[in-house]
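thread: overnight batch results

M.L. [08:02]
morning all. the overnight job finished for the chain we discussed friday. pasting input first so we're all looking at the same thing
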Amino acid sequence: MAGSFGEVIENKRIVVCVGSGGVGKTTTAATFAMEAARRGKRALVLTIDPAKRLANSLGLDDLGHEVQEVPHERLEAMGPCEAGGRLFAMMLDQKQAFDEMVERYARDPEAVKRVLANPLYVQISGTLTGSQEYAALTKLQAFDESGDYDIIIVDTPPTAHALDFLDAPKKLSEAIDSPAVEMFRKMQRGGSLSAVGKTGAYVFKMLAKFVGSRFLEDIALFFGEFNDILGGFKSRAEEVFALLRRKDVSFVIVTSPETMAVTEALYFHQRLIETGMPFAGFAVNKVHDNAAVELEVADLASQLAGLAKVRALELQPVSLRLASESLLGAHEDLQKLAVADLQAIDRLTEVAPGAIRRQVPFFNSDVHQLESLARLRDFLFR
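M.L. [08:03]
and the structure it wrote out:
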């Protein structure tokens, strides 16, 4: 197991960042990619996060399904960069990625046109269980096979969907092999209801009363033309599931010290271990600083009175005292949060004592600029 995230970047080809919503997962993924580029690697960060904030973090005006390169001068502004380092980014367009898979696996170009224009396909490509995550995985595999990048950083949706990210190949295979789909295949191949047997014919007749026989025929025709494509999807699903278990792949769980986020992080860690996925460590963002202050109210009031800006306000002693009491009270509340954060982080250490764990303090502003990522980098890779 690697001892630092720097070692992960140096030795791994694919890094998958997972975690619940609002913990800084997208910016963490962007920081990993930026650091890899600064170390001389051709780095790509791929996001399927619907928040679409990655472009802002990287200094790009927009981010879409086409790969974009971050201007090299933006990287150099963050400090020295090793030769050859380049940073690329893209946001997955689920529909377009699914269309690309149809074009890849269909044998007949005309069938591709009919499938893409089919209203049922439009619905399936957007709502089929695991379709977004599966599309992202196949895109990841395509990038991996291309050899264009030294390292690929994947930013996944929040944890509930990230679990789908792991299960997507299995779920899609199960959907393809479902009895309902097979019945439509048989109906299309046989050309009549008799092809699906007495039970199947009875089911279809009952359905026809509600949706119309023409609609069922259209569905059967769709699955008939889609048959070759479904087979390709299934074989690809098995390949991408194997990809996630490779030794040059690592999962990084991004979390915050909040109780719910830590609970989800622990659950996801358990899932990774159960499925044999390679786990690197935790990136814990938004940690409150544990800095005790040994000051009495009178001492703080005296220090405040010595500040030029405070003197300009000409505050009365009673006002200085009230201000000092408020400041110390607010700091005490922050200290309680800091202690709670440390206790939450201890839960991560107990479950995975040998894993990497890096803590990032609670910043006063959101991290949406490349300069802000440099601050994040200092804590993740120092």
